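Known limitations

Files may contain more than one protein. Parsers should not assume a single record per file. Below, a two-record file is shown to illustrate correct handling: read the sequence, read the token line, then continue until end of file.
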Amino acid sequence: MKKQKGNNLNMGEALQQFIQKNKLEKGLDKVDTQEAWSKLMGNGVNNYTTAVELRGTTLFVSLSSSVLREELSLGKSKIITMLNEELGKDLITKLVLR
């Protein structure tokens, strides 16, 4: 393995370059979105959440409770804002509860 001179990267920069070079951003965004949903919604909502899927900028959340689905639909814009803040970027523009 050749030693590179003057091209020192810290670990974070190297990892970011690897992610960009291998086009892994979308996959990581999907995983991060699922984790953010679980963290922000807590156990009460997570017990009724059957699937969380990010397609483009739309987040699809499947819920097993119609009552909870109606309750959450009243605060969709606030949920989107909270998720985007947790993710650190404006990734989600639409929330579909089903």
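...continuing to the second record:
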Amino acid sequence: MVAVAHGSRDPRAAATVADLLGAVRERRPELPVHASFLDHGPPAPDRVVAGLALDGAEETIVLPLLLTAAYHSKTDIPGVLHRVRGRHPRLRLRTAGTLGPHPLLTGALERRLTEAGVQPGDPDVAVVLVSAGSSDASANATIARLAREWRPRGWWGVVPAYASGTGPGPAAAVTALLDAGAPRVAVASYFLAPGYFADKVRNAALAAGAAAVSPVLGAAPEVADLILRRYDEALVTSTAATAV
């Protein structure tokens, strides 16, 4: 498995990815797991995959550590695979699906909210589900759908917000819920790793009156389990394609 993270200038991000992949290795020690990053630091995914090919690997599953399908999963990663295939045509390459959306991520969000002092489904708490945001409208729509699906679990209400790319921003969403009568507002951070956006969201939400902001998903057990689920799904697809 070659896991592909977004990458960040913030050293906490790479450390969080390392912790997460460490949890994956603990669950499946026999599986070789390699980290790579699209931006802001080595190793780049094409170099990792090419190195595996030179070492004699016959097949590699490339797994995006991305919470929604957007530009990176639709353009950047396919571009990487295209370049590698051109140089190493005998290597079988498969791409796993992005991590989200999936119910396991909802479980991870609730875990992190609990750590921030918010009980899942508290009817006196409204939740702002905040993602990084994207220029891809379908990615933003995925966050809005997740918020709608999460609402019936007992919360006072659940609304989406975005750190960039579109609105509402987290501060505006917190303010709107408080103005609508929500007793308390908590922010659920739909980020895999810490960095600029997660810090920006936390500061803006607390300044707007949020009672709590959850930590990033990081190495939550549900995320590690989901990575292996996505890997297994890609492996089944690969085996079926080889059989045909």
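Parsers that stop after the first record will miss the second one. For reference, the second record is described as follows. The chain has a mean pLDDT of 92.
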